[in-house]
Amino acid sequence: MYDVIVIGSGPGGYVAAIRCAQLGMKTAIVEKYPTLGGTCLNVGCIPSKALLDSSEHYHNAAHTFKTHGINLSNLSADITQMISRKDEVVKQNVDGIQFLMKKNKIDVHQGLGSFVNATTVKVTKDDGAATEIQGKNIIIATGSKPSTLPFIKIDKDRVITSTEALNLKEVPKHLVVIGGGVIGLELGSVYARLGAKVSVVEFMDSLIPTMDRTMGKELQKSLKKIGFEFFLKHKVTSVENAGKEVTVKAENGKGETVEIKGDYVLVSIGRRPYTEGLNAEAAGVKLTERGQIEVNDHLQTNVPNIYAIGDVVKGAMLAHKAEEEGVFVAETLVGQKPHINYNLIPGVVYTWPEVAAVGYTEEQLKEQGRKYKTGKFPFMASGRARASMDTDGLVKVLADAETDEILGVHMIGPRTADMIAEAVVAMEFRASAEDISRMSHAHPTYTEAFKEACLAATDNRALHV
Hints:
Layout: E1 2-7, H1 11-22, E2 27-31, H2 38-43, H3 45-63, H4 79-103, E3 107-110, E4 112-117, E5 120-124, E6 130-140, E7 144-146, E8 159-160, H5 162-165, E9 174-178, H6 182-193, E10 197-202, H7 213-224, E11 228-232, E12 235-241, E13 246-251, E14 257-262, E15 264-267, E16 271-273, H8 280-283, E17 306-308, H9 319-333, E18 347-349, E19 354-359, H10 362-368, E20 372-378, H11 383-388, E21 394-400, E22 406-413, H12 416-428, H13 433-437, H14 448-457
Parallel strand pairs: 1-2, 1-6, 2-3, 6-17, 8-15, 9-10, 9-15, 10-11
Antiparallel strand pairs: 4-5, 5-6, 7-16, 12-13, 13-14, 18-19, 19-22, 20-21, 21-22
Helix pairs in contact: 1-9, 3-4, 3-6
């Protein structure tokens, strides 16, 4: 009998298992695929960042090295080698998780985990062989899968999801991306940098529509420079694969039909909770109409000894959110009182420039009727950004009009994925914009832009604009 069985080994699941083991619980983890790490390590965050880095190096070699005084000739992109390097990065990370399981004495059971009852999990291997394990507590961390539309047939050849986009054997001539969110723009960036024409079809009137609208507008400007075109406020009505050409039909805001033809179509309209084969009903676990697992504030399901975390429950589908929830449940099980402030979980888009945000958007503050002030600072005015030729974008700080407490920070620019951590720390300690503006930031650094935006929010005191 285990103290805890974790079903799913993505960032939420494996982190939950490690924390449970650290706290002295006998722990098992169940994973249906041959490798640990879930979507994030195998076909998500890690491989996409590997390809983003490779393609960014190529793009800079083709477009900015000459300005830096570096002359190249006969430059070419070897997509096969890029994919091979990506695979090696994935292997190193996956092997690292396997090592952590051994180090923490966590039993790994490979096979599909399904409930027999509230304390028993059946593990079924690909060959049909099955074993049963018992656990006092069970954590469901089965993650998510790419969503699609009912009339789109994902053939994994020309009409693909993010999984297939990570393994293309050629650079598309024309990649049509359905969905202007994080995944579509990141993977679109990879191939745009390598020479593909990229067309983005988005139902909403803005890119990255869940983020502050300023970010979407700025990102659209930057991506246009590398060959993106955008069809905003377009509703996709059909996708037809004719062999080596795929036709996407969409209806624009005027009700007119627009046709876009490409050699590949990437469907990236979000992700859905993955519970297929889990047999949750055998344990009495309730699911919502959207297929999510219902949980309370303690991430506990309606069955007291069963918990659920990550993409399979409500909230943003982010690896680091799942990790926090994994630790939260582990600590809750031993009687500790952990907490998660969901408003302060940052979101990042790993395009270039990067987009990063934490806290409330300007649209949310308006909706709340909250009085706020805004401070902005463009990277064009940053000495460090000029030195590296990364002048697109800005930092935007939203602060309470009366107390000056920072309510939201939205960044688009170089290395903002790393810079946002300072804003998270500040907001966890309920810092004011003036607090940040009075802290010394090394010069020249990108982070000075955050200080300057805070100065701008504090009586419009920015020094370098």
